[in-house]
Amino acid sequence: xxxxxxxxxxxxxxxxxxxxxxxxxxxxxxxxxxxxxxxxxxxxxxxxxxxxxxxxxxxxxxxxxxxxxxxxxxxxxxxxxxxxxxxxxxxxxxxxxxxxxxxxxxxxxxxxxxxxxxxxxxxxxxxxxxxxxxxxxxxxxxxxxxxxxxxxxxxxxxxxxxxxxxxxxxxxxxxxxxxxxxxxxxxxxxxxxxxxxxxxxxxxxxxxxxxxxxxxxxxxxxxxxxxxxxxxxxxxxxxxxxxxxxxxxxxxxxxxxxxxxxxxxxxxxxxxxxxxxxxxxxxxxxxxxxxxxxxxxxxxxxxxxxxxxxxxxxxxxxxxxxxxxxxxxxxxxxxxxxxxxxxxxxxxxxxxxxxxxxxxxxxxxxxxxxxxxxxxxxxxxxxxxxxxxxxxxxxxxxxxxxxxxxxxxxxxxxxxxxxxxxxxxxxxxxxxxxxxxxxxxxxxxxxx
Length: 448
What we know:
- By secondary structure, the protein is of the alpha/beta class.
- The chain has four domains: about 5-115, Rossmann fold; about 130-210, no CATH class; about 210-385, Rossmann fold (3-Layer(aba) Sandwich), CATH 3.40.50.300; about 385-445, Alpha-Beta Plaits (2-Layer Sandwich).
- The chain has 16 helices and 14 strands.
- The strands form three sheets. It has a six-stranded mixed sheet, sandwiched between helices. Strands 2-1-3-4 form a four-stranded parallel sheet, with helices on both faces.
- Helix 12 (about 305-320) links the parallel strand 8 (about 295-300) and strand 9 (about 330-335).
- Helix 6 (about 115-130) packs antiparallel against helix 7 (about 130-150) and helix 7 (about 130-150) runs antiparallel to helix 8 (about 180-210).
- About 35% of the residues are buried.
């Protein structure tokens, strides 16, 4: 058995792999200015715990430069190697992007499996994907990552149940393959994804034919999106204090204060240094966001790195082509105010009042429900601003016309006339206004 395989097999009595998390952060550069190293390391530990590793040590490392061979300096490599042996760790998670050569050299030096940030996030996504599309997208990203690792050594292609086998199991027996096999598999997945996307496109078109606007939740991972989703929809979406608890998009219908119905969409959490291959792989999943009528950017304002996390989310929205175009339909939701002391909460309220009314953040606690009524009113007002309110009449014999209205526009009120016909006030999406006016001779509602 190889030294590396021995490292992989060492595990505590409960079967979990003993792991060490190393946070090697440069002392200068953009990241050093914007993010707190302790918070970055805590996040790296959270990522490792998300796949149920037994974290036996977390080690911060301040770097003046990156070494081409091992990323870290020689002395630090030896020091961490001592800890690996003392703790009988089978895996070291490096919170950085390693080249294939750096990864291999560190594995030889430490006698343990080494994964970098990309590999760890891929492993988490591999375990979390539930839908067919999610699983295909993760596998495609994983293959692209593995393809980049084919440096004088072969890698396995066996799909592991609940992940990709970075952490052990039968897949660790290396199966000889080559780039051609990987590329063939990637082409097959891309073909399957095209079919899934076409099907989802049809579903989305069907939803567009329904009158309900879409409200999408976005935010940094663990910002409380799923808790907020559950509170608003009374659903039971997985909501845990765990990074990437939600991966596949979830849709539920909710009612706004004046009775209008909307579709609420929960999406995968964003994260700093999200591998480019994952951003592109999940672009289709995030299309739900690009098509949303309202986007709720949920922030954990109790987190010490809340500002940096917000910038990371905005950067990904910009990469999706949303930042400028969606400016008017984004509401910032400052979540977890229940975790703030009275002084910090008051400071947050004062800060929020400093924003222009259209851009003012909504302060909420998804856990207790505080502030959610105000948030729902904000959503309703934003939707109303982009839709036209019309008054129209439907004859007593036009049951089909009445059914069409209920299926394609928001019916805000309906009064039955003496002759059995109906007078309705409806709210209509911009693309349907002309059609409704032609069909029903509708006029603008003065109080709408």
